[in-house]
Amino acid sequence: MDANDHLKQQLVSSHSQDPGFGTGLSYMVQREPYDAYVLSKASQGDWFKNLFKHEVEWPLQLQLDTGATVTPAIPKLHEPAHKEIHDKLSMNHVVGAGLTDGECIERIWARHNTLGNSMKGMGPGARHDTLDDHFGFWNWLK
Predict the structure, then answer these.
(1) CA-to-CA distance for 82 and 62, rounded, in angstroms?
(2) What is the pLDDT of residues 65-109, one digit of tens each?
(3) Among 6, 55, 129, 130, whose Cα sits 20 to 30 Å from the Cα of 46?
(4) What would the 3-class secondary structure string for 67-116 be?
(5) C-alpha–C-alpha distance, residues 81 and 35, integer Å
(6) What is the distance in angstroms between the CA of the first residue and the CA of the last residue of the chain?
(7) Across residues 31-60, what is the average pLDDT?
């Protein structure tokens, strides 16, 4: 949830006191592999340039398949903030991307920003379960 400022959490509990019912079994991933991934990503600096170097440190289920092709691109909503490299990393130039805007995750978060105030006081397990429930309902509405 680091990427969504509306869903920031207060330190009200711990994972051992409030573990959650189905952690990692639904829409949210298990905490330990995610924490390992975030630490790895934070240490990368220029993340794409060092992607394959640091990937070996990631949990196995997050590592790319051998021979995978990865193309860096900037989602269209974020392009104005990256003017100096927009022409190099535009989604418009990615072969096979079609009219993809790369903003799907933003649409999901926007719908769930209203949860922020009610979740700030939750422990990690209750917060995790609440997000799983809301993501499940959002997916069912599609």
Answers:
(1) 27
(2) 888 888 888 888 777 777 777 778 888 888 888 888 888 877 777
(3) 6
(4) CCCCCCCECHHHHHHHCCCHHHHEHHHCCCCCCCCCCHHHHHHHHHHHHH
(5) 28
(6) 22
(7) 70
Size (the chain), residues: 142
Locate 40 and state its tokens. Answer: 């790895």
Instruction: Please enumerate in sequence order all residues whose Cβ is within 8 A of that of 111, keeping only pairs 6 or more positions apart, or say none.
Output: 138
Q: Which residue has tokens 């072969």?
A: 95
Instruction: Please name every residue paired with 74 in a beta bridge, in sequence order, or none if there are none.
Output: 90
SS3 of residue 18 by DSSP: coil
Measured distance CA(47)–CA(44) in Å, rounded: 5
Average pLDDT over residues 126-140: 88
The tokens for 69 are 């092709």
Q: Is 33 helix (H, G, I), strand (E, B) or coil?
A: helix
